[in-house]
């Protein structure tokens, strides 16, 4: 827990990191401080000691699974031996062909929970076709990367259908008849309307991060696509929450689903959460001082607006930090490049809008900083879920 200069344990005193020179608050007007939408007490929470956590004991190991030998070898090559709770509980049911609703916190291994059994299904029957719908381009790219590593040597072909990338190239790849189609709702709808994708071809349908898709306003596109799926199919649903609206959606496309919930609590026990008090003039200076601290090894910073994020990244670069940025106005190839540089530690700071709050799986992020406060507590939970992943500790700091 960070301490303030008066010894308080519930907030961080930023003044000792603030140089005299001041900058305009990025993403806000000079005289218009952002209104706090969430009480600051929600941003303060001491992390539990990871060693005190009772480890999950899986009912099986990957080596015991009745899946194709090539998939099993690829899993073991990645260093995976024991499945995570969602994988342990969901994979056997998916292998049996059941419809599954998986409710789990972010960063719990949901992707492999549906990719492993879907791959096995496809290898055993090459006429199968699998559609995976997710909310963001970044998550789509991560799923394809994971699929490629798990399917190495199987001749399984996948195509990514996302906005911000060449429609022409995607149409060309779709005409090669891929077994996996991974895409975002808007681009998939465009391709369906152009009669490039036939929804009736898909025998397995995966909807991932559904709560986020509803938040982003994709509900109409999702229903449009679901209505064209074949009646005989396997449907897999993964989300961090199960709201009434999501329940209504489930009833429209699932048959006798089995529900698996491994969601423990809103925020990870191994994320230290605290606030940083700043005045009108020293917000950027306070951030600059924080980022110079030795423990700030790999930092994800969230801003409220696209313009604010870009201006903040530019300012940090000018002050000597290795930084990249992602937001909705940045071309897709630039977003992918920024994420790659951050993953490979070429830059140690990534500044992002909430487009990065869901699904980004980047190892060893030590700190998440909410430079601008999130609009909702749910957004906060998913922002800070980028750190403290697996068994590692992380820190989340929110400017107030």
Describe this structure in words.
The protein has 400 residues and is of the alpha/beta class. Helices cover 33% and strands 16% of the residues. A seven-stranded parallel beta sheet has the order 1-9-14-13-10-12-11, sandwiched between helices. A seven-stranded parallel beta sheet has the order 4-5-3-6-7-2-8, with helices on both faces. The longest helix has 15 residues, at 110-124.
Strand tally is: 14
- Average pLDDT level: 84
First and last CA, distance: 16 Å
Helicity, as a percent range:
25-40%
Radius of gyration, rounded? 22 Å
Structural class: alpha/beta
**What count of helical segments does DSSP give?**
13
Q: Strand percentage, roughly? A: 15-25%
- What's the arrangement of strands in the largest beta sheet? 1-9-14-13-10-12-11
Tell me the series of helices and strands, N- to C-terminal: EHHEHEHEHEHEHHEHEEHEHEHEEHE
Sheet with most strands: 7 strands, parallel
Poorly predicted runs are 1-36
Sum up the structure in keywords:
seven-stranded parallel beta sheet; 13 helices; 400 residues; alpha/beta
Q: What's a concise summary of this model?
A:
The chain has 400 residues and is of the alpha/beta class. 33% of the residues lie in helices and 16% in strands.
Task: List the topology elements.
Elements: E1 12-13, H1 69-77, H2 85-95, E2 100-103, H3 110-124, E3 130-133, H4 137-150, E4 158-161, H5 167-174, E5 180-183, H6 185-193, E6 204-208, H7 210-215, H8 219-226, E7 234-239, H9 244-253, E8 258-261, E9 271-277, H10 283-291, E10 299-302, H11 306-318, E11 323-326, H12 332-343, E12 349-352, E13 367-370, H13 377-384, E14 394-399
């Amino acid at each position: 827990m960070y301490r303030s200069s008066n010894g308080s344990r519930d907030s961080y005193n930023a003044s000792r990191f603030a140089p005299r020179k001041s900058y305009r608050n990025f993403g806000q007007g000079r005289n218009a401080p952002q209104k706090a939408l969430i009480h600051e007490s929600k941003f303060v929470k001491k992390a539990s000691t990871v060693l005190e956590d009772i480890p999950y004991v899986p009912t099986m190991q990957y080596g015991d699974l009745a899946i194709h030998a090539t998939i099993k070898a690829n899993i073991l090559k990645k260093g995976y031996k024991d499945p995570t709770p969602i994988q342990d509980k969901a994979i056997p049911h998916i292998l049996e062909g059941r419809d599954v609703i998986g409710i789990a916190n972010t960063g719990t291994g949901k992707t492999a929970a549906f990719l492993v059994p879907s791959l096995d299904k496809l290898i055993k029957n090459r006429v199968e076709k699998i559609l995976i719908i997710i909310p963001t381009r970044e998550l789509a790219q991560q799923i394809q990367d994971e699929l490629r590593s798990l399917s190495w040597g199987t001749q399984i072909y996948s195509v990514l259908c996302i906005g911000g990338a060449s429609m022409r190239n995607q149409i060309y790849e779709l005409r090669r008849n891929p077994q996996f189609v991974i895409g975002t709702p808007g681009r998939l709808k465009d391709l369906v309307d152009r009669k490039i994708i036939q929804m009736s071809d898909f025998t397995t349908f995966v909807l991932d991060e559904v709560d986020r898709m509803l938040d982003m306003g994709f509900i109409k596109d999702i229903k449009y696509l679901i209505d064209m799926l074949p009646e005989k199919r396997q449907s897999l649903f993964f989300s961090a929450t199960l709201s009434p609206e999501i329940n209504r959606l489930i009833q429209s496309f699932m048959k006798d689903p089995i529900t698996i919930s491994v969601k423990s609590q809103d925020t990870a026990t191994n994320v230290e959460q605290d606030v940083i008090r700043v005045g009108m003039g020293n917000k950027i200076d306070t951030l600059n001082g924080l980022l110079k601290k030795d423990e700030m090894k790999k930092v994800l910073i969230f801003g409220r607006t696209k313009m604010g994020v870009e201006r903040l990244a530019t300012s940090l670069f000018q002050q000597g930090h290795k930084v990249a940025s992602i937001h909705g106005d940045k071309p897709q190839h630039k977003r992918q490049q920024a994420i790659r540089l951050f993953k490979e530690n070429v830059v140690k700071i990534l500044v992002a809008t909430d487009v990065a709050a869901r699904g980004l799986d980047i190892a060893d992020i030590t700190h998440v900083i909410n430079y601008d406060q999130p609009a909702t507590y749910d957004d906060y939970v998913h922002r800070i879920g980028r750190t403290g992943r697996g068994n590692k500790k992380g820190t989340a700091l929110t400017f107030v």
